[in-house]
Each structure stands twice: as structure tokens, then as C-alpha cells.
Amino acid sequence: MLVSEQAHAKINLALHITGRRADGYHELDSIVAFAGVADVVTIAPAESESLNTTGPFAGDLPRDGTNSVLSAWRLLDGFSRQRGAALTPVKFNLEKNLPVASGVGGGSADAAAALRGLVRLFDLSISGQDLNELALQLGADVPVCLLQKSSRMTGIGEIVEPIALELPEGIVLVNPRIPASTPKVFESLNLQCGQSHGAAIGNVYDIESWRNDLTAPAVALVPEIADVVGSLIFQPDTVCSRMSGSGATCFGLFASLENAQIAAAAIAEKHPHWWVVATTLL
User: Which domains does the chain have, with CATH numbers?
Assistant: First the structure.
């Protein structure tokens, strides 16, 4: 048996940092949606655990065994062993279509896809709460990536509330092909433990009032992000443009896929070395 799961790009339409807890974790209020472009995780039974990587960004993945897909496998196997039923080995293929360290949750989405796929492959009986807790151990973005639905994330990411949003159809994703380190971006925010920051989201349906509080520290680390945002803002028919997550990927929303495709073509022509994709929101 072989199972396949898509790991869709996670887009932080809003990312408000509301403060830093005493334990060092940053608290956030975020509106998340998912785009049509995705990595693909394929899983099959095997004699030993292994990971093969393909796709345009496979070469950018770590080679030291720290891939989030393998981390998901080890965590779920440990959970199963505690219940007296170790998982048998599997081989993964990760088709890496999303840039690495790019603010679209690629690693988190891959981990979530691996969890979903392993549950299907082994027909595991596991509660949603247990699966969500395992996901959170893999990263703050993994629980929302399990759902792959428009949601509001609060806390450190562990509180996920699906919401119905009326969003423009088209989206353009642009990355300058420069990685942005999430830990370094948060560090550059320079919040002390126990310190408050910006206000939470006031209106979950007013996209113009949303912001990304990590933009300034990300631009300080990767100045090209400012050029990417600018390239999107000045496209005809842009509804709004913003950085996603901790960068360096930025997005522009458009009323239609056709408008998004026109904008993407214009940006790609001017910046042929950038990663530029026009797609739709799920």
C-alpha cells in the first residue's frame, strides 16, 4: 500500500505578535489560509526507514537526518510504542516544491502531511487531541497544517479555530530565493520575556487592518524582502500585499486567478531569479 498527502503552502495573512511569555515563547494572533501550491509526501512500507527527496528545492533540505518528515515518523512511532504497537518501517518520498525557510510553513506542512499519511497507512486509532499534541511537539505551525483550512491561530500556535473567510480568488507568492531564519527573525524582534507587544486582531474579516509584526525584523535580516513586497504592491489590481510568516516569501491577493497570473508573469519577467507562483487559495 502507498499513501500520498499534499502539504499545501501555509500563508499568514495576518501575524500579530502580542507579547513574549515568561518561558520565552512568543504569543501570536494569526489568520492563516492555504494556497494551491504544495509539497507532496508519499509513504510506502519498507524494510528500513528512509527518506528520498525530489523536486526543485530538494537540494536545499538538510542532510543530517533532521527533516521534519522523519521527525514526524519518529514521534508517532514513539507514541505507538508506548501503547505496545511499534510502527513497521516506511520509506518516504518528499517532493519539495516549496522554498525552504521561506515563511510558508513548508517544513511544518511536510510534518503534518507525514502524520496524516502515517495514520492512514497504518489505520491508526488516535484521537484528534493526541494527534494535535504530537503535532505541536513538532512545531507551533504543525497543528494548523494538519487541518489545512483557513483558521485563526492564537497562543503560541496551539489554539486553532477554523473560520470561514471570503477572500480574493487569486494569490501570487514571491520569494527572492534567500532563506530567512525563523529563530533569527524572532530574535531580532528583541522582545524580553514577559513583555507585551502589539494589539491582537480586532476584526477577523477586515483584511486591511491586519499586519505582520515580523516584517521589519525580517527586512533587517533580508533586505530583499522590501523589494518583493514592493513588486507586488505596484501590480495592477492588487488587493493587498504582505510578508508571510517570518519571510522571505511575500504574497499578493488578486480578485481572480487570471489577474494573479498576469501579475506573476510581470514579476517573473523583471526578476527571473525569484520564485514566483500564481495560484488560488483553498
Answer: 3-162 (3.30.230.10), 170-280 (3.30.70.890)
Phi, psi values for residue 152, rounded to 5°: -110, 125
* Tens of pLDDT, residues 18-34: 999 999 999 999 999 99
93-150 pLDDT tens trace: 999 999 998 999 899 999 999 999 999 999 999 999 999 999 999 998 999 999 999 9
Determine whether 110 is an active site residue: no
Annotation marks residue 10 as catalytic: yes
Q: Which of 29, 77, 110, 141 is catalytic?
A: 141
Q: Which of 196, 174, 186, 191 is nearest to 218 (CA)?
A: 186
Q: Is the pTM for the entire model greater than 0.90?
A: yes
For residue 234, give Cα distances in angstroms to 225, 227, 239, 252: 15, 11, 11, 10
Q: Which of 10, 39, 110, 213 is catalytic?
A: 10
The closest of 174, 189, 144, 166 to 30, measured between CA atoms, is 144
